[in-house]
Amino acid sequence: MPRLNRDRILAVAVLTPSVAAVGIFVYGFIGWTVYVSLSQWNSFVPDLSFAGLQNYGTLFATVRFQADLRNTLIFTVTFLAACLLIGFLLAVLLDQRVRGESLFRNIFLFPMAISFIVTGTAWQWLLNPSTGVNLLFESLGLGALRSPWYTEPRTAIFSVVLAATWQLSGFTMAMYLAGLRGIPEELMEAARMDGASEWQLYRHVIVPLLHPVTLSAVIVLGHISLKIFDLVFAMTGSGPAFSTDVPGVFMFETTFRGNRFAEGAGIAVIMLALVAVLIVPYLWYGTRTAAEA
Amino acid sequence: MSWKARLSLLLSLALLATPVITGVQAGAANQLEIFSWWTAGGEADGLNAMFQIFKQRYPGTEIINATVAGGAGTNAKAVLKTRMQGGKPPDSFQVHGGEELTSTWVKTGFMEPITSLARSEGWLSVLPKDLVDIVSYQGEMYSVPVNVHRGNVLWYNKKIFDDNKLAAPTTWQEFFKVADALKAKGITPLALGDKNKWEAAHLFEDILAATLGPEGYRGLWSGKTSWAGAGVKQALENYAKILGYVNTDHAAGTWDSAAQMLIDGKAAMNIMGDWAAGYFTSKGWKPNVNYGFAPAPGTGGTFVVVTDTFGLPKKAPHRDQALNWLRVAGSKAGQEAFNPLKGSICARTDCDLSKFDAYLRSSAADFAKNKLIPSEVHGSAAPEDFATQFNDIVNLFVTRRNVANAQKALQAACVSAKMCRK
Angle A63-94/A156-182 helices, nearest 10 degrees? Predict the structure, then answer.
């Protein structure tokens, strides 16, 4: 079958560059990072002699890294919950065929077009306790709403959650809106005919049908929040007593300021593992449903 | 093969070749690439003034001004490291004298000594010996200092001090008295903005110098003074007390927003390096009129040195031009052009002081007669490994104020950075 062979050669020829590039620049470098994280390279001169898990031991014993893991968990959970909830509500409201829908859709989606650095800088100003929204509250006679925002160690991380949610809840809305528009009108009609209230309609028909959208949103937002760097770096830095520190910022400072390359690689590997915990079940689920279909 | 197949094969080959083609760039001979983090304001003006002198003396050379923005050079240093490790150094780069130069670049074999150049240019007779020592390693000089900033300065709002009939405190005991008087009037005594962490570490460094004295402070870096000892403990306790007098929103601010608090009359004092004077000048504030200055409490007679220097990387692509650049950077004309704009004093002791303002003249006088000690936060006293850990420990301490934990962590950092044995 010469025809098939020729196709195969072509397929291989076309795929080879990208396979090679992905192989080297993604998997090769992941392997290299893991290798470095197991080495003694903790000064400016490379020293790749084997150190076992020593770097990981040091990291987990560091107060700053413990704070990072705690912050990542709190940030991811609250940011995901807030984005999904707000995104869903906005989508449902827009789905009511309101006048000027496209205008509102664009307004809600627009923050996504801004880079995290800009968002971080703007929110840093907005939430600055002595110059930001606190002044606005006061002039409106709402002095009771004054807050120390990101300068209070116990609640600082929620200021970052606020900024991140502002940026990405519009994106979640767009995903949900697409999902809502994809639900056949007949299904809703049928539910209404059977006497379902609007609440029951959403609770038992629409939300379950939107599960794939929710899952995609969790994956997209989750991997952003686990790897977040630029927003935190621009907005609050490490924060008082590392209350807004995240592994990405710690990795940058450890590696490029402290010259502790092996420990920096260790942080990168742990971040990869965290994202893998989120992504692998999704891939597994994806392949399984694909096989069933 | 069909034409479509051929085309896609060709395209994929072209795709493979792109990085190879773009990777090859011809470097012209008459170029000079200078790497620094002087991107804005007086710093950039000062750098340009030095470039002008270079162009007059060595015409026909194209200067590539490679700057990376970011306070205290934190971002620039990360970029520089990747370039040096990748074997593509600039012709010369800005580096703080001291450990940032020696332990990051010299001991690791990236730099070429410039001792013979220093001799032929006569720098050794016009630079203070303490300063030459800071940029030397094993008897060889590795960079030329272009300026000196003072780290231990207390700045105060003159009007607030005059209105309340206060004098600048010379010791921490006096500071507490002044601060209590201000607090009773509802004025924030000390402005701090430590969003970037180093600002709080900077304040602690000055407290360490005050508590331990210059010799004890130097001993921290040579191993003679123990981080676990009574002196450091007392400095930490002192710091915890001082933190009771700073603005509550310090975590939202930076060093310049702290200086701005003085201008706005929201705080009375600030402890910061003398780049704060440059900030005041840019806002139209004048020394001895709007603001007063004094050595940080307890550090009179001591001068915490922060010095910017330029060195010669081994693989400098245009070595001859780089040597010419160092000649300009070390020259009297170069430093007299650069420093008044930058807001620092000359590293050379023979500069014409009439070009400088009242603050800088007083700083130059102190520089000539005080004991010079290296700054830790600004890269001179300790390796960067220790410096980043030091910032982290102080950051935690500012919130928690746990003296025992901070002291234990400082000792552990000293061991892990290989500065002290157990």
Answer: 40
pLDDT digits (tens, 9 = 90+) for B238-280: 999 999 999 999 999 999 999 999 999 999 999 999 999 989 9
Mean pLDDT calculated for residue range B332-350: 94
Element (H, E) at B420: none
A162: in domain: yes
In chain B, residues with a C-beta closer than 8 Å to the C-beta of A43 are 108, 385
- Domain with B346 in it: what CATH number? 3.40.190.10
The token pair that represents B143 in the structure block:
């960079």
Domain count, chain A: 1
Domain that holds residue B172: 150-304+377-416
Q: Which two tokens stand for residue A282?
A: 């999704």
User: What's the domain range around A240?
Assistant: 57-292
Q: Mean pLDDT over all residues of chain B?
A: 91
Q: Is B229 helix (H, G, I), strand (E, B) or coil?
A: coil
Q: Give B78→chain A minimum CA distance, Å.
A: 5
pLDDT band at A71; cut points 50, 70, 90: very high
Alpha-carbon span B53 to B115, nearest angstrom: 23
pLDDT above 50: residue B26: no
Window B:5-44, CB contacts with A under 8 Å:
5, 8-9, 12, 15-16
Answer yes or no: do A150 and B251 touch at CB < 8 A: yes
Inspect the interface and report whether the beta carbons of A256 and B77 lie closer than 8 Å. yes
> Which chain A residues touch B103 with a CB distance below 8 Å?
44
